[in-house]
Design goal:
Elements: E1 28-30, E2 35-37, H1 39-46, H2 50-53, E3 57-59, E4 71-73, E5 78-80, H3 82-89, H4 93-96, E6 100-102, H5 112-117, H6 144-156, H7 158-168, H8 188-196, H9 202-209, H10 226-240, H11 252-257, H12 261-264, H13 269-277, H14 303-319, H15 329-337, E7 340-341, E8 344-345, H16 348-367
Antiparallel strand pairs: 1-2, 1-3, 4-5, 4-6, 7-8
Helix pairs in contact: 6-7, 8-9, 8-10, 13-14
The protein binds a DNA duplex (25 and 25 nucleotides) through α15, β7 and β8.
Amino acid sequence: MLKQESDSGGGNKWARVCDTCRSAACTVYCRADSAYLCGGCDARVHAANRVASRHERVWVCEACERSPAAFLCKADAASLCTACDADIHSANPLARRHQRVPILPISGCLYGPSAADRGGVVMGSTGVTDDGFMGQEGAETIGEEDEEEAASWLLLNPVNNNNNNNHHHHHQTNGFLFGGEVDEYLNLVEYNSCTDNQFSDQYQQQQHYSVPRKSYGGDSVVPVAKDQLLQQQQQLNFQLGMEYESPKTAYSYNESVSMSSLDAGIVPESTMSDISISHSGSPRGTMDLFSGTPNQIPPQLSPMDREARVLRYREKKKNRKFEKTIRYASRKAYAEARPRIKGRFAKRAEVELEVDRMFCSSITAETGYGIVPFHSKCSDTFRCR
DNA sequence: GCTTAAACGTTGGCCACACTAGGGT
DNA sequence: CAACCCTAGTGTGGCCAACGTTTAA
């Protein structure tokens, strides 16, 4: 699909600089021009005429920032090149289960009023623009609410936002193209959730499904028709004729990057803030929402900076609020059955005491009946004696 | 049109406990 | 190395206070 980056250009200093201005970090790769462009140059070059505006572009890999993205990891909401995708998603079981889809090429004018008029055009979000964010993603029409959310995510990370828009639209339009060794770390469950449109956000799916594949003794989760999913996946793989290789190598850097969204939450705050502070150009992220200079990608990022960015991004993603998901049905059952006092969980003895006092003594005296379970599901604990 | 208060809606914290992971013995 | 014990951490739902927003006077 996309050519693997061959031009390492000497020592990898992470973000590749724009081929045009040579100053800003590139955000998109133009196939027609075989050029890496920053948002501003992309806007300028591809808004010049209609022909140019038709150039297909793809986001630059969010991990290495040096290669065209080939896959969109929905769980991480990250666009990744084949190499990074393989590295990241082969690192651990959780990462393997991330749902990824091929990156849709971007065409049309990403910037400027003309672009805004074109509802159906795939919008970009590299957003080195005055307001910091302009584009939106997808060949699909995006609702205004989604645009608003997209805007906030654009501030955080253009590429990410591109992905995050998909959250609300369930999936990107292009199909899935995994093959070869992909099953080793392909999240078929998430794929199922996505295709079923059961959940609008893959992060939810991740929350919902990522852990339970590991067999827990007590907690249970909603079962998934895995075999069926596998067949669907294989069909798609075949139809698309895609190949996907998964290098088994795992670099130390990738070890951290490949953490699942769930794992990101355990990163100590201090670590990330420390790293952020040490970095002169404030990395994109939550703080950048208030910095007034969104989408300014530091020309060069150290591995630590890069890692900090990824971690912070994931933490923010983790904090996004969507519909409540239940990861452990058994815990839900326990919670529902648990005695409460004013909505709070209460100690059983305490509740029994409370019940005895509040209900049994008074109501029993009035009605002559003894059993007063005020919560039907936990009647056992509320039986008056 | 502006101000104030009331009504309404949203958000996050609290609580107990079953359960798991991980370290120690 | 396996088995066991202990501790810390996680997740769960309903209620409510603290806000923020909207509406009416």
